From TrEMBL:
Molecular function terms from GO: metal ion binding; phosphatase activity
EC main group: hydrolase
Cofactor: how bound: Divalent metal ions. Mg(2+) is the most effective.
Organism whose genome encodes this protein: Paenibacillus contaminans
EC number of the protein: 3.1.3.-
Residues binding Mg(2+): 7, 9, 204
Family: Belongs to the HAD-like hydrolase superfamily. NagD family.
Name of the protein: Acid sugar phosphatase
Residue sites binding substrate per the record: 179
Length: 260
C-alpha cells in the first residue's frame, strides 16, 4: 500500500485558488484507503487553520490531524532534546501553539533555544534578542529555509530571509527543520507508519519537496502546477540536480500513472 506526503501551496492550492484535480486526487486516495499527510513548510498557521484553508479553498473534508507543519516538526525536535525546554520564539500563531502544545515554555530571557520562523512583525529588537541569546549559547533552530513566498500581490520574503540576518550576525548556522531537511520528513514518515520506500513525496518544488523526499528515502513525484511548470521543469532539474521518479503535469496525471 502506498502512502503520500503531499505539499500544499503550488500542489493543492495556489494561495486562495484551487489547483485543478486536487480535490479528486484526495478523494481517490480516500476511496482506496491509501494514507496521506499534508506536509507544509508554512509555520505561520496552526494545523487547524491549515485544515480550514484546505476545506475553504479545495472544498474537501480536511482535519488538523492530516497536517504536519514545520512548526510542529520544530517543536517535536526540541522536545526530544535533553538541552532544556525554554524557547525564545520569533514567529506567528502556528509556531507559538506548536511549541506550547508539546510542553515547551516560551520565554524572553535565558532560553535554551531560539526558534525562528516567518514573522510578519519581525523587528530589530527581536533580531537583537535572538542574536544575544544565541551568542550566550542558546541553540538556533529555523523552521524552514524558504527565502521567498509567492502571494496574491507578488513575492514576499520568507522565513529564510529573516534567518539570514540572524546567521549573519551570529555567524552560526541554524538547524533547519522544514523541507528539504530530512528532519520534517522523518516525522512525516513516522506519522504515516509505512516504510519510507512505500511513500511518495509529492510537490511542485524540486529543491524542497523532491529534495526532501530523496533525503528521506521516499519515492518522488513532481507536479508542474507551482514553482515547477512545463516551461521551466528541465532547467530546474538541471539546476537542482534532483531527478524525481515521476514528472507529472498535475495530480490527475499522477493518479493515472500510479494506476498504469
Ligand atoms: Mg509547494
Amino acid at each position: 500500500m502506498p502512502g503520500f506526503l503531499i505539499d500544499l501551496d503550488g500542489t493543492m492550492y495556489a494561495g486562495t485558488r484551487q489547483i485543478p484535480h486536487a480535490a479528486s486526487f484526495i478523494k481517490a486516495l480516500e476511496e482506496r484507503g491509501w494514507p496521506y499527510l499534508y506536509v507544509t513548510n508554512n509555520s505561520s498557521r496552526t494545523p487547524e487553520q491549515v485544515a480550514a484553508h484546505i476545506r475553504d479553498i479545495v472544498g474537501i473534508d480536511a482535519d488538523a490531524e492530516y497536517v504536519l507543519s514545520s512548526a510542529q516538526a520544530a517543536a517535536s525536535y526540541i522536545a526530544e532534546r535533553q538541552d532544556g525546554s525554554r524557547v525564545f520564539a520569533i514567529g506567528e500563531a502556528g509556531l507559538r501553539q506548536a511549541l506550547t502544545e508539546v510542553g515547551l515554555e516560551l520565554v524572553e530571557r535565558d532560553p535554551d533555544f531560539v526558534v525562528q520562523g516567518i514573522d510578519r512583525e519581525f523587528t530589530y529588537a527581536k533580531l537583537e534578542a535572538a542574536v544575544r541569546h544565541i551568542a550566550a549559547g542558546a541553540g538556533f533552530i529555523m523552521t524552514n529555509p524558504d527565502h521567498l513566498l509567492p502571494g496574491a500581490h507578488g513575492l514576499s520574503p520568507g522565513a529564510g530571509s529573516l534567518g539570514a540576518a540572524i546567521r549573519m550576525a551570529t555567524q552560526i548556522e541554524p538547524v533547519v527543520i522544514g523541507k528539504p531537511s530530512p528532519i520534517i520528513m522523518r516525522y512525516a514518515v513516522e506519522r504515516l507508519g509505512l516504510p519510507a520506500g512505500d511513500i511518495w513525496a509529492v510537490g511542485d518544488n524540486l529543491r524542497t519537496d523532491i529534495g526532501g523526499g530523496i533525503a528521506a528515502g521516499c519515492r518522488t513525484a513532481l507536479v508542474q502546477t507551482g514553482v515547477a511548470t512545463s516551461a521551466n521543469v528541465d532547467a530546474q532539474i538541471a539546476e537542482t540536480g534532483f531527478r524525481p521518479e515521476l514528472v507529472c503535469r498535475d495530480l490527475a496525471e499522477l493518479l493515472e500513472r500510479l494506476d498504469g
